[in-house]
Amino acid sequence: MTQAPGRTPRLITVAWPFVLIVLLQTVLATFSLQVTSSLRAFVTGESLWSKGQHDALYYLNRYAESGNRSFVARYHQAMAMPMGDRAARLALEADPPDIDAAFKGFLAAGNHPDDIPNIIWLFRYFRWLPVMEACIRDWRTAEGVLMQLIPIGEAIDASPHINEADRRDITRQLDEINALVTPLTKRFSDRLGEGTRQVQAVLLVGNVAMALVFILLTVWRLNSFLAHRRNIEDQLSHNAHHDALTGLPNRRLFEERLARALEQPGSRHALMFIDLDQFKAVNDNGGHAAGDELLRRISRDLDKAIRGSDLLARLGGDEFGIILPNCAPEDALRIGLRLREIAEAIDFVWNGHRYSISASIGVVHLAERRFTLQEALRAADIACYMAKEKGRNRVHVFETTDAAQTQFTANLNWVQRLHRALEEDRFRLFSQKIDTIDGNGAPAEHREILLRLEENGKLLAPGAFIPAAERFGLMPALDRWVVRHALDVIGRREGRTTGTYSINLSGLTLKDDTFLPFLREALRRSRVPADVLCFEITETSAIENLDEAVAFMNAMRAMGCRFALDDFGVGMSSLTYLKRLPVDYVKIDGSFVRDMLADKTDWMTVEMINQISHLAGRKTIAEFVETADILAALRTIGVDYAQGYFIGRPEPFLPETAGSVIPLRRAGVA
Question: Which Gene3D superfamilies match (predicted)?
Fold first, then answer.
């Protein structure tokens, strides 16, 4: 596993003081143990030295008293200890120190071999300490006095037999030596004990101090960590409530503040939504960098223009929201107009191109009635939409009595209902028969596919939801649903290769570059031949972008599909348009057919459309044929096909096989 870049350096930065303190604590503990062991060994060595000098005096005294030569041998054994210590001290005081000679001397003095390195280490490196220096000085002084035993011992060794006078003289000398060396030995021992206690106290203080430093460092580091964590939490909280691009509060914080404002009874607050009108042009032409810079620029300008108590937030994309606490309606309108002027006055230049900017602003007076959070947001959204609908670059105040706004709100409600209907697959297909007027009957089935919406067990006609779908761009999704499900049914009907099935297409679908690939794939899956499909497009949508519509239709005709021009006569009817559009049928709008027997103008209009269509080589279909008299009149005029209640009412479009009805298979929406 690989570590993230920078993780190891950051870990070292955080951990190094702790590692250093642990290392120092370990070193100090090791040193303390070493010093303590050395002091113990030194004290043991001092005890052996004292015992040796004491025994040497004692055995010489016994010899002087008894004349027994065995005490002389014991004297030499006892004297070997202080003499060994002396040899070791002289070896260590030499320049350079003779470590081997010192080891042999201390070994001869009776010290344990494992203790000797500690004694040598303490003597070499700490004899400069005052307490150690005094101990060694006492040792050297006492040793000097003790050395007076050497001549006495040599004289005894030289004369195997001594007289009474010599023994008294030896005893006297030994008493004098003892009187001198005993206090020196005691002082040496006392100083060594005091020094040991001092060193142990210093080591204890050092260890406690190091522990306190470790505790303080831990507390400091912990506090730093907690402070750093608080800073990170504050930063995360700021990032969670603010927009990264502009630094303004985001939608989350905006809605929290708005919810609190709505909870204040009797307050006169206002809510404002701002939507930039030409932002897409800036993004498309200048790139996202230009769009980002424009958002930053307008954020700064808007923020400077509002009151200190107001909250400006970026809600997403090019949408901004403002909460205006304690703001009268006239003040809210005045602020909105000023913000519109500020946006319009922005001179935005990017890579040498100058862009015109404006804003559509919706204002809601929250004091007019009790709003919930969602109701307030929805009202501001509707007001902003209305500002765009009325021509953009304007301020619209939300009014519940505004008829246009009420209609817009109704259409907006349909958007959510249609989305849910697509997700839940609640649309239903119906079909209506189209028959020939000459009485011979069509050689194969000819039907128009119709759409219904099922809600709460009721079927809604297209007139209830199609306007909203067209207004908010949902028609391409509905068209695809119809095509897919219609092909599914056609694929399982008898005579599917010879019939004609008309499907309505919206103007937005004519502009959809992805519809042709979708249709090819749908035809491939259903195995329905393309020539049984006849797509109906309205005259208005076709001539809105004539060249684009012609290219679209030619591409589909190349696949084998046919076309009908729907609702002909209610738009800007023109023979030129009819000649250019590659359609097979012209459908005469039912508003002329329904009253043609009572209204001579309608009769003449139907007759004219029929003649123009035939001149252009198109067959005609009359809609709303509801009586036998209308059918007879159409036959007289020479119309080719009829569609209406007299011919056949709409009925569920189901896959019929051998007289039985197979339930329509429900499919998801792409």
Answer: 3.30.70.270, EAL domain
